[in-house]
Amino acid sequence: MTETPTPDAAFARLDATIASRKGADAASSWTAQLLAKGPEKCAEKFGEEAIEAVIEAVRGDRARLVSEGADVLYHLAVMLAARDVSLADVAAELTRREGQSGIAEKATRSDGGGEPPR
Ligand SMILES: N=c1c2ncn([C@@H]3O[C@H](COP(=O)(O)OP(=O)(O)OP(=O)(O)O)[C@@H](O)[C@H]3O)c2ncn1[C@@H]1O[C@H](COP(=O)(O)O)[C@@H](O)[C@H]1O
Q1: What pathway is this protein said to act in by its record (predicted)?
Q2: Are 23 and 16 in contact (CB under 8 A)?
Q3: Most exposed of 3, 23, 38, 81 (fewest Cβ within 10 Å)?
Q4: How many domains is the chain built from?
Q5: Are 81 and 18 in contact (CB under 8 A)?
Q6: pLDDT tens, position by position, 62-115
């Protein structure tokens, strides 16, 4: 029986794969092709994929949302890698934030944090 991987394991493997594609042969790797086009193109791709995920989230098709969610996370990781940021860096930031309520964090901002989400 195949076990469902933990998000930690899946993201760590993705991080390592994407790092290994920096400077790799673009002919055989989509990631290498994207990275070769530069951070701006990677960011544009991430934006497109994010919009596709938004559409599926609004539609409410669970399977399509899982698929688009995977596209978004992969393209986020590529966009980050293009600026030498890893998923491990982001995980460290998320870990730092654990236990801090978003409401409490907003209240510490000099501008008072603005309006709550509508
Ligand atoms: N997770 C992904 C992953 N998700 C999406 N993609 C590719 O991203 C591309 C998205 O291209 P498009 O925008 O044209 O696709 P699309 O959004 O479906 O297109 P439309 O809906 O607009 O038609 C496709 O070629 C997908 O295959 C991915 N390519 C690679 N990975 C991972 O990266 C690893 C290394 O891949 P390579 O770098 O290709 O070896 C793979 O083993 C995977 O683990």
Answers
A1: Amino-acid biosynthesis; L-histidine biosynthesis; L-histidine from 5-phospho-alpha-D-ribose 1-diphosphate: step 2/9
A2: no
A3: 3
A4: 1
A5: yes
A6: 999 999 999 999 999 999 999 999 999 999 999 999 988 878 777 887 776 677
Q: So what's the ipTM on this one?
A: 0.89
In a domain, 85, yes or no: yes
Inside any domain, residue 117: no
Tokens of 7: 């998000």
SS3 60: coil
* 65, 53 contact by CB (below 8 A): yes
Whole-structure pTM value: 0.88
DSSP 28: S
Helix, strand, coil share (%) of the chain residues, nearest 5: 70, 0, 30
Q: What is the CATH number of the domain that holds 83?
A: 1.10.287.1080
- Does residue 75 contact residue 53 with C-beta atoms inside 8 Å? no
Distance of CA 29 from the midpoint of ligand 1 (Å): 9
Give a yes or no: residue 7 inside a domain. Answer: no
Report yes or no on 47 lying in a domain.
yes
Q: What lines the ligand 1 site, CB under 6 Å?
A: 14, 17, 21, 29-32, 71, 74
